[in-house]
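Section handout 9: paired folding examples.
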Amino acid sequence: MKVTVSGYYGFGNTGDEAIALAITRELRKYGAQPLLLSNTPEETARTYDCDSEARMHPAALLGALLRSQVVLSGGGGLLQDKTSARNLTYYLGVIRLAKLLRRRVVVFNQSIGPLTPEGGRRVARALRGVPVIVRDRGSLDTLENLGIHAELGGDPALLLAPTPGLTRDPRRVIIAPRGDVTDATDALKDVVRRLRAEERHVTALSFMPDHDDQAAHSLGADEVLSTRDPQVALDAIAQSGYVIGVRLHAVILAAASSTPFSGVAYDPKVQGFCDDAGAPAHPTRLDAAQLTDEVLTRRLPDWTAIEDMRLRAAQSFSRALNR
């Protein structure tokens, strides 16, 4: 069985590449052959040892769908028009084309929204009759308000595991900023100062080097780790004692590696994940003293809730493939 996966792949975003890594691994467990639609298909094919086609090339996209029996839209936060209506048009267009070709199409472990009223109407029309699996309860509520039934799954990256044999240093702290969330970056500089005064070793982790490197270098951390490799990011997190994540997948990989974390909710998807995981989340204009205290006391999330999320993520593959 060939499965085409539509997402934000091939753009150098470590979080989305973590999703790609997890999805390709899990699909193979079911005997399925993954085909990723990517901005850099040759690189994607090499990285994940799978088929890949150019996401914006009409003939390549059509060919991918024609060769597939199942089309997964996701994971990630694809169905939103906060960044631009063009993104929403593209992802809904892939869904509509797959439906037209009579492929089994599944909205797979996405966060839905934010959506404008018009965006919400477009999503509601496109998803009629489509199986929908979302990764957080907030997205269930968003779709319910649009009259769309959905099931609760989990982010596929929760299924990734650190390299065996790593040693955790409880005094090491990872901070993953976003280059475009400047209120959080300014406040995080204060957090770094406070943590270093308490003899914590702080690593600034840049999840999207072209986008986040400047913010990471500005924090005043002990070191900066800039990577597009999700396994490198996961292993760094697994060796730390706490994670502060503005990037969503910083906190998701923390959960995957059993590392306590706090989120900075620049977007509802970060708030939604932290809420579901029983972990603290802060606004972008955060209280540096409060966040520092969470790190120093190693405030724990709800590990039982996270294990439930991981189980739902694993089970979502059989549901999506109709096995």
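Moving on to protein 2 of 2.
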Amino acid sequence: MTAPAGVPEFARALLDDAAMFPPGLAPLAEAVPAHRRHESAPYAGLVGPLVAAADALDELAGLLPAGDGPRLPLTVTVPGGPAAAAAALAAAAALPVDLRAVEVAVPDGMGADRLLAELDRAGFGEGVHVYVEVPRDERRPGIIAALAATRYRAKFRTGGVRAELYPGEAELARAVKAAVDAGVPFKATAGLHHAVRNTDPRTGFEQHGFLNLLLATDAALRGAGEDELARVLAERDGAAIAARVAGLGDERARAVREAFVSFGTCSIAEPLTDLVRLGLLPPEMSPTQEGTA
């Protein structure tokens, strides 16, 4: 896929609009029109679908106009696990939306075999990408290995509202390495508020940078080991990281993005502001208050 005009390959559709999720928690009635503004903004090519939880679909129905207008691009999260996926698919099918992806949690105690069997029974359409939120426990290696032989993808949680929800560099490096080696595309969610590894001045949380994650994926594709990936994830020199991203070139950037598909962010403005500040996007793509979540 060719990047939209003005959008570098590494950044196309990189930002899934998770405005309704913590810490942003935008009301659905505000998130939908804000997403529509993103779609017509100068930075539209960087923004992926709106992300909504399955239990918000009933409310979403009242916010979408009927008729032949543009359908809302949508990703649905299913925290209830694969057994709840069929109901979420049916609810989305009744809406004027373009369902792009479904993200399914793995219930406690569920192993890879049962997970795949229940996902297969859910009846996902061929055009819908399915992401499995791989748990941060002993099941992770087996689930990633099992996904390799399927159409399903991985989702890694990279932060949250508590410090312990942020995996350390070594843990995230292991996850990226496992997914890349298995040929399993993945997305990330939560905690990637900025382009570069940082300490949040408000909370003191150590936060991963989404450009660090992109470069760690590139390193994994080149055969680097977990230690090197962890070093890339720990890098805090924004200028050095920006130079490496700019130097990827289109071919390597496309390969990286086939592996690291996107990440969910409750603020479209924050990552855009960082990319402009680092010189990786032109100033005209800098977000304004209007059109940001």
